[in-house]
Amino acid sequence: MATYNGQKYIREQIDSILSQLGQEDELVISDDASTDSTLEIIGGYGDKRIKLYPFVRNKSAYKKSAQLVTTNFEHALQHAKGDFIFLSDQDDVWLPGKVEKCLEALRQADLVVHDCRVADAELDTVCFSYFSLIHVQGGFIHNFIKVKYLGCCMAFRREVLTAALPMKPYIAHDTWICLLAELLFKTRRLPVQLSLYRRHGDNMSSASEKSPYPLWYKIYYRIPIFFSVIGRSLFYRLKTVIGA
What we know:
Blueprint: E1 2-3, H1 10-18, E2 27-31, H2 38-43, E3 50-54, H3 65-78, E4 84-86, E5 93-94, H4 98-105, E6 111-119, E7 125-127, H5 130-134, H6 140-145, E8 154-157, H7 158-164, H8 173-184, E9 187-198, H9 215-243
Parallel strand pairs: 1-2, 2-3, 6-9
Antiparallel strand pairs: 4-8, 5-9, 6-7, 6-8
């Protein structure tokens, strides 16, 4: 989990996560210098499964909010020790059975992305199925044109994380992981709503909204993403062959 000034909703999310974790599991949190009571709320749990890693850096080096989110998530992922990794936003809610169903799906895949309900700030359902709303599909080409996998709905094996680190600050963390997984690993879409994807005025991501950018910018924006993803995938394959 990557956090930043999440005091309004974070307790609901942490409660929903801890209720599904075993004693040997961990909730890794990277906090990007929150100025509200986020850190106090996290510290108040006193739960040994929560591993908090403050992330202090010069934010002037990152001009866009997406870069701040990506590097914050990367910091959390660098500290994750488990064989199976779940990404989590600070303001959603995991529904009962999420961990169990994802782990079951990961027996036959390296990365799974599940469906979710889109909810408003009070968690009232706005759309019952994000998959139906956005028409989520698998495959590299489809997701390169427009990535529709939500990071907060992803779970993957450590091998995927090994391929993804280090990340590119200019590429959204879920875009990076999604595209690499589609090129290098077996992915699976799980058409079951396993979380409440809360949409409110302070969200850092806008995956469910239509892009405001013109076509020329979308093409221009994707050029470095394409070469970065292809380059990393080739490097990973070569590294795997040499290692074998």
